[in-house]
């Protein structure tokens, strides 16, 4: 069901992750060099102003040797930051060839672009479904069998309690715009008011989902706030257990060999949810078989490659006892 990484693959992965960590750490320093500094005349004197997009320009004082030095220092720091960012990006692209050569480039490129678009706007999300396996195998240092990973769609879970935050951070307050930043060919799959799925010209599909609520007769904030021609995350009652489980983050590599951060659910929650849906009478036989196979493969990966994973108690609290007791049966 999976193969552990060999020595060369493991070394390539570690080197790529270390490089990506340097790149991410460098990006965190961007606020110190964001915007620009310029002189502005007022009352016969010049004043130094710091301008940052979305904010009111701030005066840093009248022109003097001190403010001139401040401007020079800022511009030098900004140039150095830009130069290092470009250098790190070039190195990541060079190292991507080694990632591809070692078969670590697993996550579909379109899926990776969607995740980067979500992260660019700081939108809280979690990947669920088949694509979550890419995060798990990466954390475990393994490669899962191809048939287990085969899918043409990405399931993105939004927490209904964060709906206003999700909407406010989306470009022009539209969820579809997030996808169109990743691939401009994304369109709603149907023209329905409550359509939750979009597809690109390539055929790749993205589904937005959310957990159910106590009173299912009432509209969600997504349904209240989003336009009728936008995507509306579909509700699923069983996702309330998933959303209550711990978060899980790992770095995977897309088809080009470039790293991408993946936020998903705890892999034990993945196993429990897959086992649950595989027993539902309205689930198609084909999907039930796949659900069971993915749950079994993930349980094996957890037991053999991720035995030190913390937080088991939180999983048991998130799921009903009838489901969580299966972790004991699986020795997880």
Explain this structure.
InterPro entries: NTP_transf_8_dom. It comes from Ferrimonas marina. Residues 112-308 form the Nucleotidyltransferase-like domain. Pfam families: NTP_transf_8. The chain has 332 residues and is of the alpha+beta class. The chain has two domains: 2-101; 109-329, Beta Polymerase, domain 2 (2-Layer Sandwich), CATH 3.30.460. Helix content is 47%, strand content 19%. It contains 14 helices and 13 strands. Strands 5, 7, 8, 9, 10 and 11 form a six-stranded mixed beta sheet that branches. The chain has a three-stranded antiparallel beta sheet with strand order 2-3-4, with helices on one face. Strands 1-6 form a two-stranded antiparallel sheet. Helix 1 runs antiparallel to helix 2, helix 3 (109-120) crosses helix 7 (175-182) and helix 4 (132-140) runs parallel beside helix 11. The longest helix is centred in the N-terminal third of the chain and has 37 residues, at 65-101. The radius of gyration is 23 Å and the shape is globular. The mean pLDDT is 94.
Total individual domains: 2
**Biggest beta-sheet profile:** 6 strands, mixed
Report how far the terminal alpha carbons are from each other.
18 Å
Poorly predicted segments: none
- State the secondary-structure class: alpha+beta
Beta-strand content estimate: 15-25%
> Looking at CATH, which topology of the largest domain would you report?
Beta Polymerase, domain 2
Which series of helices and strands comes N to C? EHEEEHHEHEHEHHEEEHEHEEHHHHH
Instruction: Give the oligomeric state of the chains in this entry, treating copies of one chain as homo and distinct chains as hetero.
Output: single chain
Mean pLDDT: 94
Estimated radius of gyration = 23 Å
């Amino acid at each position: 069901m999976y193969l552990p990484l060999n020595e060369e693959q493991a070394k390539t992965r570690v080197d790529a992750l270390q490089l990506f960590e340097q790149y991410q750490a460098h990006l965190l320093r961007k606020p110190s060099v964001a915007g620009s500094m310029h002189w502005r005349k007022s009352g016969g004197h010049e004043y130094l102003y710091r301008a940052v997009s979305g904010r009111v320009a701030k005066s840093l004082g009248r022109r003097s040797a001190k403010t001139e030095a401040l401007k020079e220092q800022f511009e030098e720091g900004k140039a150095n930051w830009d130069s290092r960012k470009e250098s790190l990006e070039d190195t990541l692209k060079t190292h991507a060839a080694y990632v591809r050569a070692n078969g670590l480039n697993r996550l579909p490129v379109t899926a990776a672009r969607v995740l980067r678009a979500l992260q660019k706007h700081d939108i809280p999300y979690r990947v669920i479904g088949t694509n979550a396996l890419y995060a798990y195998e990466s954390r475990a240092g393994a490669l899962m069998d191809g048939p287990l990973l085969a899918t043409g769609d990405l399931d993105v879970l939004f927490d209904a309690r964060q709906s206003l935050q999700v909407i406010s951070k989306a470009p022009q307050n539209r969820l579809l715009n997030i996808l169109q930043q990743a691939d401009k060919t994304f369109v709603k799959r149907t023209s329905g008011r409550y359509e939750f799925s979009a597809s690109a010209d390539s055929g790749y599909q993205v589904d937005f989902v959310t957990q159910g609520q106590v009173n299912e007769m009432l509209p969600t904030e997504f349904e209240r706030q989003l336009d009728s021609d936008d995507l509306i995350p579909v509700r699923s009652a069983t996702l309330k257990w998933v959303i209550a489980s711990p978060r899980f983050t790992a770095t995977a590599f897309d088809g080009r060999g470039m790293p991408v951060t993946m936020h998903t659910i705890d892999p034990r929650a993945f196993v429990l949810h897959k086992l649950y849906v595989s027993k539902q009478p309205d689930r198609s036989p084909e999907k039930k078989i796949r659900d069971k196979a993915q749950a079994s493969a993930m349980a094996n990966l957890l037991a053999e490659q991720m035995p030190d994973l913390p937080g088991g108690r939180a999983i048991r609290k998130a799921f009903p006892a009838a489901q969580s007791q299966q972790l004991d049966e699986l020795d997880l």
